[in-house]
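input
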Amino acid sequence: MLPDVTPAEVRAPAAGPGQVRPVSPATLRRLELAAGGLASACLAAMEERQPWFDRLSADQRAGVLLVTQTGVSNFVAWLAEPAETIRLTAEAFRIAPRDLARRLSLRQTVELVRIATDVFEQRLPPLAADEAEHRVLAEAVLRFGREIAFAAATVYAGAAEARGAWDARLEALVVDGVVRGDADDALVSRAAALGWDPAAAVRVLVGSPPVDNPPEQLGELRRHAVRIGRSVLVGVQGSRLVVLLSEQRPDRTRTDPPADHDPHPIGRLVDDFGPGPVVVGPVTANLASAHASARDALAGLRAAPGWPEAPRPVAAEDLLPERAMSGDPEAHRQLVEGVVAPLAAAGGELLRTLAAYLEGGSALEACARALFVHPNTVRYRLRRVSELTGRTPTDPRDALVLRTALMAGRLAAAARPDTPAETL
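output
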């Protein structure tokens, strides 16, 4: 136990507030001579009390010894100049090898500081010339150990901020690469450095960034993604927020960390976007192909004002009519391949019936008269259209998609004169 120390006993009348009374030059000299042995004793105690210390490389152990020796030297200098506490303690960590803070966690560093302080308490006070200096050294060890701990925390905080800033830049590069379609090995490597599984399926969400306290809202978005067992990469590009969201892998086992059960997990992330539409791109196989999802999502965001009543979020494929009208060639292609092509392959009567039904005001009897068929035949053909396309002609929204697809097919046929007109 350290002896009780009162302020009157350890501070000289002339000392300033918070300053330790200087010890005699003879004691300072003894402390200087004992510095080397003290540092070696600290290193031996670290090896004895911390099993992981032996697993450090020779360079890292030498770095710890260097910091310890500098700390001992600074302690002696501080006793002569107590006002220099902050500068001298910070210097002990500035001379450390650059990779030492990356190899040792803050918890491990605090444990080493605690061990060094214990060794100081055992070996330094006996070097005092008298009982008064003994008390001065006892209090000085505690105060200097506290300053060393604060200096260590400052170093790790600075390293964490620098690492966070670097990660943010790296994340922005990955998101920008996906948006631009630069899916090279460098992009995959950058994503892997951020902890992203390059083989995981991914979809892209786009919307406006949060207005109030964007950093906090984006942090909340990341926390929501962790709760539902997904990974995210986030990028703010001017007036739009782009989020890469991983999909749960089909080989997920019971030993994996449990995620919140939610049939619509994306809905939990939408609240962290800003006002306006949020468009969800299709699922792609991996990060290298995620540009297709980003392309569709961004095209949907540009076209979203054309459907004011759209849900939030809305799938990019649900905005195909608006995207087609805004000049998106990919929407034209998807409409033709998803609607016109399967109907044409099934026989021209389905296309003719669908066109007559939609262009005749969706009236079943009028369509039957125009085609000279029984109304039940029209009903059967419309059911076949629904089975082949996934769109119901009697639904107003699906009817808009189907009619737009017919127009896209006719435009595509007009651009290819060799296409038989009767197929469209």
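quick obs: Residues 1-18, 251-263 have pLDDT under 50 and may be disordered.
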